[in-house]
Amino acid sequence: MSGHNKWSTIKRKKGALDAKRSKIFSKILKEINIAVKENGADPEGNPRLRLALSNAKGCNMPKDTITRAISKAADKDSATLLETTYEGYAPHGVAIFLEATTDNLQRTVANVRSIFNKYNGNLGTNGSLGFIFDRKGIFSIPQGVLVMDDIEMDLIDAGAEDISLEEEFITVTTAMEDFGSMMKKLEELGIQPENAALQRIPNDTVKLDVETAKKIMKIVDIFEDDDDITNVWHNMELTDEIMEAME
To answer: Which of 20, 48, 80, 202 is most buried per CB count within 10 Å?
Structure first.
């Protein structure tokens, strides 16, 4: 779990440095679109939309951008987005799990296959990596918005499996089935997480040397830069040495 949390921290730092805010916004806008299409534009009766709006606020998305996104998604003539996943292996046996949101499945799978082939990886069949990744609820809460001693038992009662303190954030981990109860508890406590999502956490990792790891992370970055890809998960172990080389 610690390796995953470290990479989350690195991605936040990288995002601030290389202006990836537009990519973050794009992911959230797609999530708003799908949520509205599924269950309507009222967040009170739409938990998925409520979560998307919470994440939008957590990354300081402008209110007018959020309002336009909801209105556009509510338009019956607007494009319908599809969610899909892809699984495969990068070189050196590193498992790669991709989540995508797209309006053109043929385009997306062609791009994914092309990246795997170009970098000597292999696109596998869906379900082939199910034994490697567990879905967990991950909540990133800015330091300073809460006093841990006051609410730690509340978080545990709501399903927290792990609470870790990082430089700027408190990361709370739950089982997938406890994600909703944790979100509700944070709302009751008046706590606004910067981000809350179901993430795929590896239960088995691959150890690589620094130079090889940097090559794998280049592939991860290329997948992340694809407009249709919303999340990229991998099971490469991120040692302190690798993390320092990536900063």
So the answer is: 202
Instruction: Report the phi/psi class of residue 159: left, alpha or beta, with left for phi > 0 and alpha for psi in -120 to 50.
Output: left
Residue 236 is given by DSSP the state B
| Distance, CA of 17 to CA of 131 (rounded, Å) | 35
Give the bridge partners for 32, in sequence order.
none
The whole-model pTM stands at 0.85
Per-residue model confidence as pLDDT tens digits over 76-121: 888 889 999 999 999 999 999 999 999 999 999 999 999 999 999 9
The pair phi, psi for residue 82, each rounded to 5°, is -115, 140
Contacting residues for 75 by C-beta, under 8 A, at least 6 apart: none
Residues 6+ apart with CB under 8 A from 96: 87, 88, 89, 90, 116, 121, 219, 220, 223, 232, 233, 234
Domains and CATH numbers, the chain: 2-74 (1.10.10.200), 83-131+204-246 (3.30.70.980), 133-202 (3.30.70.980)
Q: From CA 38, how far away is CA 48, in angstroms rounded? A: 9
Q: How far is CA 17 from the centre of its chain?
A: 19
- Classified as helix, coil or strand, 131 is coil
Q: pLDDT per residue over 9-43, tens digit each?
A: 445 444 444 446 778 899 999 999 999 999 999 99
The residues facing 165 across adjacent strands are 170
HEC-encoded secondary structure of 203-232: CCCECCCHHHHHHHHHHHHHHHHCCCEEEE
